[in-house]
Write a structure and sequence with these properties.
CATH superfamily of the largest domain: Acid Proteases
Number of domains: 2
Structural class: mainly beta
CATH class of the largest domain: Mainly Beta
Number of strands: 26
Distance between the termini: 37 Å
Oligomer: single chain
Number of helices: 7
Helix content: 10-25%
Radius of gyration: 21 Å
């Protein structure tokens, strides 16, 4: 069972989200120049005259922050291009969008890919099924040109959804999902988009990095092929992967006020941009709720937030605090903790999902060259 996209989207089912136009971000060169960082960057990355013949790409994909609940950007598929909004999900590996073959209500209010309108589309008879923590899809696989952050990937395999059962995807503000995890967990053996970028030398480095804004603000992005030095002024802690499936790492422990409260002998965690909350083993969640004086459903007094402690994740010998301003969610005068109970045992211990509640505190680098995750505390 896949652990994906997952737990924080329930709130989206309360209302049909408006279609929000996305705004292009500035180029990396322009951004660095405005911040006074262009010269240091160029010293680290000297000009290569061969690059105009063998270009290595650095491209930013702007993300729309929807209520701190989901982050999605615009891609295009086909020739001429057909545009779709997708979640850039490090907790899954497949790209799929709704298609004109889909009869589910969830497809009726989203953009649908029409292969007849693309003269570069190549169809197959292969089928696709993906079950997420909330929602699922079935469809067929095809190949076409996919453009992400101005990077054009030729003959990219993707899913054309034929069914999206239930009403979950009906209420989402995005059309589909673009998975950024490893090929080993891709359904139907489909090659992920970023793997094709690497194989075709479309990125300067075999990594991508993610910044997620807070409080619904703009500015979120996925940067393909580079690390933005503005977001790493506090240094980068590199953490080796414990499995090349999800972006999975080993945690040492979790503490509150200097006292270990969970993951006492180590446990596994995945860094997942497609999960809105922090997914916590149920036993650990009960302990945390008790320490924070929250109800069993996670509700907490808004007046108590200012006195709550940090929750500290100890990873690879370093401490990564998440303050109450990050893990307490306020809505209409009510406060609740941004945690969700989940029990998924692994061979190396219980599993945690470090979703957007955690990621908003750090600039995260997903390094395929060395199979590591880099974390830098945001300035």
């Amino acid at each position: 069972m896949k652990l994906l996209l997952l737990l924080g989207l329930v709130a989206l089912a309360q209302c049909l989200a408006p279609r929000i136009p996305l705004r292009r971000v500035k180029s990396l060169r322009q951004t660095l120049k405005e911040r006074g960082l262009l010269e240091p960057y160029l010293r680290q990355h000297p000009y290569n005259p061969a690059a105009k013949y063998f270009p290595a790409r650095i491209s930013a994909e702007p993300l729309q922050n929807y209520l701190d609940n989901e982050y999605f950007g615009t891609i295009s598929i086909g020739t001429p291009p057909q545009e779709f909004t997708v979640v850039f999900d490090t907790g899954s590996s497949n790209l799929w969008v709704p298609s004109v073959y889909c009869t589910s209500p969830a497809c009726s209010n989203h953009n649908r890919f029409n292969p007849a309108d693309s003269h570069t589309f190549v169809g197959t008879n292969d089928t696709l099924y993906i079950a997420y923590g909330t929602g699922s899809m079935t469809g067929i696989l095809g190949y076409d040109t996919v453009t992400v952050a101005d990077i054009e990937v030729i003959n990219q395999i993707f899913g054309l959804a034929e069914t999206e059962p239930g009403d979950f995807f009906y209420y989402t503000p995005f059309d589909g999902i673009l998975g950024l995890a490893f090929p080993s967990i891709a359904s139907s053996g489909a090659t992920p988009v970023f793997d094709n970028m690497m194989m075709e030398d479309l990125v300067a480095k075999d990594l991508f990095s993610v910044y997620l804004s807070k409080d619904g603000q703009s500015g979120s992005f996925v940067l393909f092929g580079a690390i933005d030095p503005f977001y790493t002024i506090n240094g980068i802690t590199w953490i080796p992967l414990s499995a090349e499936t999800y972006w999975q790492i080993t945690m040492d422990s979790v503490s509150i006020s200097g006292k270990p409260v969970a993951c006492f002998s180590g446990c596994q965690a995945i860094v997942d941009t497609g999960t809105s909350l922090l997914a916590v083993p149920n036993r650990a969640l009960s302990t945390i709720l008790g320490i924070l004086d929250a109800s069993s459903s996670g509700e907490i007094s808004c007046k108590a937030v200012s006195s709550l402690p940090n929750i500290v994740f100890h990873i690879n010998g370093k401490a990564f605090p998440v303050p109450p301003s990050a893990y307490v969610m306020e809505s209409n005068g009510y406060c609740s903790l941004g945690f969700e109970g989940m029990d998924v045992p692994t061979e190396s211990g219980e599993l945690w999902i470090l979703g957007d509640v955690f990621i908003r505190e750090y600039y995260v680098i997903f390094n395929r060259a060395n199979n590591m995750v880099g974390l830098s505390r945001l300035p």
